[in-house]
Amino acid sequence: MSQSCSTTPMSHTYILIDQGNSRLKVALATDAQLYPTRLYPEPPSSDQLLELLRMYQLPEQPLYAIYSSVGEREAPWLESIKGICQRFVTLDAETPLPLAEVQYDRQCLGVDRIASVVGVAQLTTEPSLVIDIGTAITYDLLLPERRYMGGNISPGPELRLQALHDYTARLPRVPWSDIQSHLDLWHQELGEQTDQAIWLGVARSIVHEIDSYIEGLRKRYPSLEVWITGGYAVDFVKWLKYPTFVETNLVERGLRDILQYQVARSHDS
C-alpha cells in the first residue's frame, strides 16, 4: 500500500528597510506575520539584524531583504546586510510589482507611496484612497483588480507651519509637537492669539483637504474605503468626517508583499 505525504512549505524570513525623509525604519516579517517596526537613529549592522532575528526566534535562512529609500538608492552600510541575504531587492522604478496597472510615471513615483498602495491591495478589493500623512501628505487611488490610478501630493503639517514662519516677517514657528496643548482648541473655529490661529489654520486646512478628497471620490466610487498611514495619521483621523482604516505599518506591509512577489517570481523562473 502506498502512502502519501505532504511537505510543509518552507518559511521565509524578511527584512524590511524603509528610509524615509526623516526616519530609518526596520521591520522583520514572515509569510504569516509582520513584527513591530523599529526606528534606528543610525543604520543597523548585519550583526544587529541577526540578533533581532534570534530575539524573535526566526530562522536566519532563507533570508530575504528589501530596501526602500525616498533618497539615495544605494548606501555603503547595506553591503553587510546583502552578505547575509539569499536575495536583496532595492525598490526602484524597475522593480516588478504585484499590481495589474500603474497609471503614473514610475521614474518619479515615490517608493513609499507605491509600497503603501501594494499594502492596501493585500487588504481589500474595494476602491481605496490611500493617504500617508508625513513630511508630505500623499493621496493615491487604488481601484479593484489592483489598478493604481495615480495621486496627489501636498505639504504635511510641519512643512506648513515652517513655511508660515519662513516666508513671513513676524509669524512665529509653532511646532506640531505642541498638539497636546492645542487639542482643546479644536472645538473652537477661530484662534484668539497668533499661535492658536496658526495651529488651528494648519490643522483645519489639512482636515478639510482630506475630507474634500474623500467626498469627491465617494461620488465616483460609492464603496470607497479610506486607508490612512504615516507618522501623523493618529493625530488627524479622529477629526475626519468619514470613517477610515488606520494602518500605521502600511509601507512595511507593502514592502513585505513586494518582496514576497520577487521571491515567488525567482522560484517560478
From TrEMBL:
Subcellular location as annotated: Cytoplasm
A biological process from GO: coenzyme A biosynthetic process
Organism: Porphyromonas uenonis 60-3
Source species, domain of life: Bacteria
Recorded metabolic or biological pathway in which this protein acts: Cofactor biosynthesis; coenzyme A biosynthesis; CoA from (R)-pantothenate: step 1/5
EC number, as in UniProt: 2.7.1.33
Cofactor binding comment, as recorded: A monovalent cation. Ammonium or potassium.
Catalytically driven reaction(s): (R)-pantothenate + ATP = (R)-4'-phosphopantothenate + ADP + H(+)
Function comment: Catalyzes the phosphorylation of pantothenate (Pan), the first step in CoA biosynthesis.
Family note: Belongs to the type III pantothenate kinase family.
Needed cofactors: K(+); NH4(+)
Entry keyword set: ATP-binding, Coenzyme A biosynthesis, Cytoplasm, Kinase, Metal-binding, Nucleotide-binding, Potassium, Transferase
Protein name: Type III pantothenate kinase
